[in-house]
Amino acid sequence: MALFVDIEKRLGAFNLKVAFEAENEILALLGASGSGKSMTLKCIAGIENPDKGRIVLDGRTLFDSEKNINLPPQKRKVGYLFQQYALFPNMTVRQNIAVAIKDKANAETIISEALHTMNLEGFENKRPHQLSGGQQQRVALARILVNEPDVLLLDEPFSALDSHLRFRLEQELRRTLRGFDKPIILVSHNRDEVYRMSDKIAVIHDGKIKDTADKKDLFTHPTSLSAAILTGCKNISPIKKLDERRVLAINWGMELALDRDVEDAEFVGIRMHDIRLGEGVNAFKAKLLEEIENPFSYTLILGGEGFEEFESLSCKINKEYWQNIRSEYVDISLPPQSILLLKE
Amino acid sequence: MFPLLNSLRIAGISTVIIFFVGIFAAFYISKAPRLVKGVLDVILTLPLVLPPTVVGYLLLRVLGPKRILGAFFLSVFGIKLTMTWWSAIFATAIVIFPLMYRTARGAFESFDETLAHSGQTLGLSNTYIFWRIRMPYCRQGILAGTVLAFARALGEYGATSMIAGYTPGRTATISTTVYQLWRTNDDALAFKWVMINMAISAAVLLVVNMLEKKSKSSPKAIEVEG
């Protein structure tokens, strides 16, 4: 079982051009809003039509512009979990699930099973607006699963929920999806959610896929600027190559020694928690511009002596530790192994 | 009692016809490209603002025994399209069409399209989605439009009197009867018919108001059972 997607779609000035493959795994499309991730899902489901390209699911061609194939959504066997769940408001929970069942002869058994596994017993005669966000999501999932799709598309599954509910629902959804042995495409702009939920991550920016990697690799070694930003890297600077192992970080006005070759990298990045306090390689004295207090840490905004006009560096530091060493000037170092080399 | 029955059957039949025509026009036009939508909208709403006598005049120019359609039906089927009780249906249907069309279009435009999309991905046919998801969702707006159209149909005078005339016991409706009775100084009887007409219209408007209140208290038309 696999999903293959290679499509292009023009929407005014926006140009969507994505290609990826998913096996029986959870592939996340990580991107900011307007990056084209929802549009990609809509094209797979057949709600929107790409201008060009091919979509193949389990060897079945769903869309092929060259062969003029374009299956209607009804024939694609694509399960789509919408952001607001899209339950039919005029139907009860039971009816919402019943309409999606293909094996009508065994409908009663299938409904009872679905209500049981999704923990919805006792709600079958309620209408969607009488349910909480989490319950609505479970009904929507139950409805999709009884429909027996060959692929599951999850469009920002937690965006409609309060943050305190998200964590529990995320666990619940992970448990439900474990039994679904088919490709799952998850769309989200939340890096933590994506990291916890998925196996593989594709970073999408401005309609294009910038980086596809195993989630661990993507977070430790992003290779594109978008991947670094979306995985939460706050300190990024364009560079000037001095020699193979030395660059000038233009925004910070500092020379950095590297532990690998620059090759054709155009930017360096370093995560907030990777900046070390104290002496070391790539050390320099930074001026404290601002300190921001978080619940369990401080974020320090640092500038350099003599290049105040440049962008600042931010770093995160343990609360107690900072309270002990707090001062106007801070010695920091950027360990070479933590420096990310990035391309546009 | 003939004028009452005749009014009711004309209003009833034209409302049923316009219910379907209006809904389908509204559905397709709400999805049309902007330019097409703008042009069709003006044309289809015109009967709402034109004097009914203008509608009657235009109808006579098409359906009159010596005009294109009228002459065709007369020579081929031997049917005269004007001056029968059902001629009034042409006039009434055209006059009430914009009411049905506009309220239905407003209802369709408020519909959440992701519901249709989720229905499609679940394998439901477009016909099923239309009648079992879209229509129930838009039910209150469409119902209000239907009742309003029926009320207006009941009160149609101008175009009806031109195309169906006034023949007691054959084409007379409440509105044409009131005019005729007033003209012949039968004040008492005219007043009776006026009261009957007002009672029916008031009842219909009451229904419209109740529907609108209900749709306000339940924003998504989901509270209604059944």
Outline:
The complex is a heterodimer of chains A (344) and B (226). Chain A is α+β, with helices and mostly antiparallel strands.
Chain-wise SSE layout:
The complex is a heterodimer of chains A (344) and B (226).
Chain A (H helix, E strand, L loop, with lengths): L2 E9 L2 E9 L3 E5 L6 H9 L6 E6 L2 E5 L4 E2 L7 E4 L11 H6 L8 H11 L15 H14 L4 E5 L7 H16 L5 E5 L2 H7 L2 E6 L2 E7 H6 L4 H6 L4 E9 L2 E4 L4 E4 L9 E4 L5 E2 L5 E11 L3 E8 L8 E6 H7 L3 E5 L6 E3 L2
Parallel strand pairs in A: 3-9, 3-10, 7-8, 8-9
Antiparallel strand pairs in A: 1-2, 1-4, 4-5, 5-6, 10-11, 12-13, 12-15, 13-14, 15-21, 16-20, 17-18, 17-20, 18-19
Chain B lengths: L1 H29 L3 H16 L2 H12 L4 H9 L10 H23 L3 H9 L4 H12 L1 H16 L3 H6 L10 H10 L3 H31 L9
Outline the structure in words.
The complex is a heterodimer of chains A (344) and B (226). With 344 residues, chain A is α+β, with helices and mostly antiparallel strands. Chain A folds into 2 domains: 3-222, Rossmann fold (3-Layer(aba) Sandwich); 235-342, no CATH class. Helices cover 24% and strands 35% of the residues of chain A. The model of chain A has no long low-confidence stretch (mean pLDDT 90). Chain B has one domain: MetI-like (MetI-like fold), CATH 1.10.3720.10. In chain B, helix 1 (2-30) runs parallel beside helix 5 (87-109) and helix 5 (87-109) packs antiparallel against helix 8. The chains are: A alpha+beta (344), B mainly alpha (226). Chains A and B meet through strand 7 of A and helix 6 and helix 7 of B.
- List the helices and strands of chain B in order: HHHHHHHHHHH
Number of helices of chain B: 11
CATH superfamily of the largest domain in chain A: P-loop containing nucleotide triphosphate hydrolases
CATH level 1 class label of the largest domain in chain A:
Alpha Beta
